[in-house]
């Protein structure tokens, strides 16, 4: 196991954080966002007592035309619906890349050959990941705005301003961008223009990304996402029409992972919930005795998630059987795992990116950053890209845990990278958004005309 210059961590199993007594659960829930260091004041100003109904309506600025778009009645998208939604070598359409939230891109990235191709600026921190389609990159900011830029050069295309901080990563499918906001609304925006296709008020703040559910059981494609009321919502993608809701006991910070007929999501009620996609009812609930702020990765029989009880678990969501528990240091995990083959990568607030063997839970290696690692790693071509609070985006060899390269972004990086076409896109907490790509080829020299 490569320890990258740090002393070997103690092989100690730390006890999990106990679930709060029911008599104080409400108090704990009110203060939990502060404990998780994720609290944000309402973007529309004021004392923080304003409700979503009092907030201003979203505004759309189309950079190319300058005309504000009005929110129409829900209209199905005009593009051909996709049969599945997963990252390709040239796109990154959903946070963590696919339904199981593997955090793996099929793209190949030459980490040593990357250069910063463009930088865009927002009005506040970027803490959610971006998504990328064939033409544009989309991301939200704590300034309450969702933005689209041309992926090739960072030219602004459109922006939509909401009434709350936008910390959730978006999803792009069927020509729509679906994203939640702390104003409690889930919105579907036209990917090309930012025009509002539909808007659903959940009455609770949203900081987690949506998952895509394929057409099934007589329902067209839909999206699945959780809110601060602890409710998991399934909404039709085309119209925003509710299909079902599933209630947990506290905040839902993570995004659901899907496999077969089930979705799995961890909650701040101290449980990991496995939900039947057909009915919206619980299949299994695994008690973990700690707050779960990370998303589950579920790409095979064994799913993986870290939590605030200082542990990473390998478990079967369909039986609640825990295969292994990883706990090297007494620090929590807010980073969501990446899983490729028999390797799990997860960041910790111990300032370490951990490599873990999926089949056994045994440590493979650990890579030390110089700040906590809340960013969720993305694997592309044998290299993991992950941000840290020290202001760097690291490229780490997946097999050895050795540093390949580090990029200094100048501010803490808690957002997760997106990878497409050999490029890496990531936001920072100073509100800047960075695009790294292969060095641009010099323009060919103009040919001289031959004289007569």
Strand-residue proportion: 35-45%
How would you name the CATH homologous superfamily? YVTN repeat-like/Quinoprotein amine dehydrogenase
Number of strands: 34
- Domain count, please report it: 1
Task: Provide the CATH architecture.
Answer: 7 Propeller
Helix content: under 10%
The biggest beta sheet is recorded as: 5 strands, antiparallel
What class do helices, strands and sheet pairing give? Answer: mainly beta
CATH level-3 fold name: Methylamine Dehydrogenase, Chain H
State the strand order across the main sheet.
1-7-6-5-4
Nearest-angstrom radius of gyration?
Answer: 21 Å
Q: Estimate the mean pLDDT confidence.
A: 84
Uncertain segments of ≥5 residues (pLDDT<50)?
1-57, 63-82, 443-449
H/I helix tally: 1
CA distance, first residue to last residue: 71 Å
CATH class: Mainly Beta
Description:
There is one protein chain. The chain contains one helix and 34 strands. The chain is an all-beta fold. The chain has one domain (31-63, 85-438): YVTN repeat-like/Quinoprotein amine dehydrogenase (Methylamine Dehydrogenase, Chain H, 7 Propeller), CATH 2.130.10.10. The strands form eight sheets. It has a five-stranded antiparallel beta sheet, with no helix packed on it. A five-stranded mixed beta sheet has the order 2-28-29-30-31, with no helix packed on it. A hairpin with a 5-residue loop joins strand 21 and strand 22. The radius of gyration is 21 Å and the shape is globular. Mean pLDDT is 84; it is low at 1-57, 63-82 and 443-449.
